[in-house]
Structure formats: C-alpha cells, structure tokens
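This part of the workshop introduces the protein records we will be handling. To make this concrete, we reproduce a full record directly below.
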Amino acid sequence: MSTIVTRQAQAPAWVKCPSCQALVYGKRLARQLKVCPECGHHFRLTARERIGQLCDPGSFAELVVRGGADDPLGFVDAKPYPRRLREARERTGEADAAVAGTARIEGHRVALVVMDFRFMGGSMGVAVGELVTAAASAAIAERVPLLLVTASGGARMQEGCLSLMQMARTSQAMARLHEEGLLTVCVVTDPTFGGVTASFVSLADVLVAEPGALLGFAGPQVIRQTIREDLPPGFQTAEYLLERGLLDRVEPRATLRPLLARLLRCQRQGPAPAAPRPERDALRAPDQVRSLPAWETVQLARDIGRPTTLEYAAAALEDFQELHGDRVGGEDRAVVGGPAMLGDLPVMLIGQQKGHSTPELIERNFGMPHPAGYRKALRLMRLAEKLGMPVVTLVDTPGAYPGVAAEAGGQAGAIAAAIMAAARLRVPIVSVVTGEGGSGGALALAVGNRVLMLEHAIYSVISPEGCSVILWDAPAESPRAAAALRLTAADLLDLGVVDGVVPEPDGGAHADPAAAADNLRQALAQALGELLPLPAGELVAQRFQRFEAFGFQSGFQSGGGRS
C-alpha cells in the first residue's frame, strides 16, 4: 500500500454543533481540540488530526505495508468497489481507513493504529487488518505498548469473507501481544461497531472512550429493525457502558494525552525500578504494638473518618489512574483499582472503598463488594502480572455483600477465583488491612507475600456481632466475642496471620490522615524492597508456604487431636 499525503482542508469560518446547534468560530473550535465549548460535544477527527493531538511533535513514523488486490471479489453495488476506493482516497488523502506507525507520547514510545471514519465509514478490510497486525509486530519488535484509536462501522462488506477473516487475524495479533507481556490500550471514538468491536477493540487491556462515543456490535438501527424494540436512553454510549463495567474510563479529549502517558509508563522499558528506601520499619513484634481492648479497637477500625483507599491512593502514592469495570457487565463502586506510582515504581493498587458521608457510603455499598468487584480486582491483578507490576491491596470491608443479587451473580465463585489467582500471581503482592477485614470478602484481597495491618485495624472470620448471636445467642456479648476472636493487629501478629503492623497516629488514622498515609507509604516501600529482588517462582512458592503454614503444626495430628 502506498503512502498518500493528506491534504489539509481549510477550517470553515463557522461550524454548527450537531448536538446543541450552537455556531462556533472555526479557529476557536480548532483551539478547543474540536470539542464544542458550549456543550462539550466531541467532533470527529481525521486520523492525522488525532495523531497530531496525541503524539509528540515530529515523532510519528508511518508504517508502510505491502499492497494487495483492491477488488478481490469483483464487487459491485451502486458502483464498482474500485471506484468507491478511488473516491475515498481522493476525498480523504488516505490509502485506506487506518494509519499506522510508531511515535512518542510525552516521551513514551508506542506503536499505534488510528482509524479514519471518513474512509468508507472506517470499515475494516484486508488493508486495515494488515495495518493492525503490522503495528502489533512493530510493538513486539520494539517491546513497546500498542495504542489503537478506533472509529468504524465494522467489517467491510465489499471484501466479503476476507474482511470477516480480519477479525480472527487481528485477534491473533492481540493474543501475541498478551503473550509477550505488552500493554494494549484502545481509545474508542464515535462510532465504533461491528467486527472491529468484536475483535481487537474488546481485547485491549485498557479501554478508554471519548464522551458520548457510541460502541457496540450491532448498531442501534440494526437492533431496532431486527427486534422492533425501543432502546433505553443513552444506549451504547460511552457513559452507558462505563456504568455497566464494559469500559475502564470515559475521558475528555483535553485530558486524553496525559492519561495515555501515565498508562504507557506502566510498560517497563529498561531495568526494573526499585522501591523507595523506607525511613522506618513496620512493627514486627506484638509487644511493639499499642494494645487496646478488642472492642475499642473494633470501634476505631470502623470509624467513619478513617482514610479510604482513594485517599491513601492520593496521599501515599502518586498519579493513581482509576480503571473501572469487570468487562463482563458490572461496575462495583465498592472496589477501586488502577496503576499508581510509589516513587519511580509502578504498582497496581486495588482496594475496597467505603466513604465518610451517608450518600457516599450508600454509593459504595458500605465497602461490601458484589461479584463484579472481585472480578474487577481479578482483572487488574492479571494485568499487573502481565506487565510485571507489583500489586498493592488495601482491605477495608465488613465482608462481601450478603444479598440476593450477589448470590445470583456468583459471589462465592468470584471470591474463590480472586483468592486462587492471587495465590499463583508471579509478581509481588503486598496486602494491608487498613480498617475492617471481614471474612472471605477481605481474604479475596489479602493473599499476599506480605500481609500487614494498620495498628487499629481488625481482621476476622466473622464480625463480633455475628459471632455473639451465633455462639452466645446474645448480641450484648459482642465485646466478649471480639476478645475471643483475637482480631486485633497485636493478636494476629502473634498468631502469624500478619507479618507486620503499620503504626497509626495517636487517636487513630482518622486523627491525622497525612501521617497515616506516610506510615503506609513507608511500610509499602519496605515490603516491596524486600520482595522485588525475588524471582517469580520464589514469590509464588513463598506465598504457597505462607498459607500452607496455617495447617496442622508440630503439636497437632491430622486426626484432629493434640499429640
């Protein structure tokens, strides 16, 4: 395929926004990155405009791929296919519906494919498939991430089953990138449908969409004509899909480039960075931990003012980029996660999220995850493993949500899958119980090489209230149950359930959140500094041995009695 030089069309003096009907001065619209200043509508961009907005100036080098037959089927509809191609090339200045190459985004090298909807609706034929696979090969050769920017109506009808085969071909390319441990990011723009969505788009590690972009397999008109059904408001928009866990983020055009730069930083290029050197150690002996009555500790652990995962992400780490959704159909606000930086070290942060006000607590379901929350955590753990990033989990939950919808959605299976995956993950895992550690809902995020607790956190198989009702048939016995369960940090350090305790400020973490976050940062640096030098096999073996140790010890026999 030959390279065609794009003609730069002169911007019209005034442009009418198709969303709000406002007239916008053309040069102002260009300065706004073609986003309506009145309503925020994102106008469609050409492939070259997109490259100019995202890539460092002068860094784009176009990939030129081999050409093929322009009309493999001899297809004719209202006009012959070769004529359609010729007209599209003259109108757009492009050889086909995508442009591929290598570039830098804020200094981070990347291979990229950018689609252009002007060229026959961005449809994918053999040429587009060739560009996607060529860019994937370039990413593998250079050990850099692949960025895809999509705008397409789907597979190209005029190339028949040959266009259909591009779905398998591009999916294979994405599989190779996955096996090579290379990050793939897809920016979905309006519209993206059909075989493009059902192949390389949906296989990207991170899916980001522009506001209002439409994304799906069957388009709205096809759905209406086929099933004669009214579609719900906002159906197939980026915002609709984000709420249902099918996208990681909806990102305005103005902040898209810095977001991509932060995501691209997750792909290691060169020697692995080290964890920051800690200034002080976590507490390793029970007598170092301030001991309070168990019931008093329970109240401190549940205090509504305690810092949340998102607050620790902002204060103990840097550049946290939250990713949403389980990619199956659920977004659980009780679990948050995404890449962040601990000094120069990229980490994958995953944690349970409560809140401070009643509306926030309700929105986050009081930190009690549904199955989608654990599936989100599992997805992020696997992404971290793929990229060689350590995982940091922050545990703060009364337990998994005990509701009908959660049970119907496979709550137990989702927890079990998260536990099993964490047990075999080939990257370091540091888990910290920051507040409540309730039952299996907590353990799903606490299968770590190092398990730490904040000084006034709790960790238990059941809540004291539940234990007192079941065993004493008396809710008033909750303080007694709390003491019997040995759920405090000092108790669990003594039992070997946790490896260290993170000191809290006087009065608890909520009394001085900044100091609590600094203590947490020091503990993470210490733990990761110890774990990062270990090979993957040793990390897995260490985790296995850690939990295997909670079986019959020398004083016990498998028959169940003391020797």
Q: What stands out?
A: Residues 1-7, 554-563 have pLDDT under 50 and may be disordered. The radius of gyration is 27 Å. The domain at 44-264 is CATH 3.90.226.10 (2-enoyl-CoA Hydratase; Chain A, domain 1).
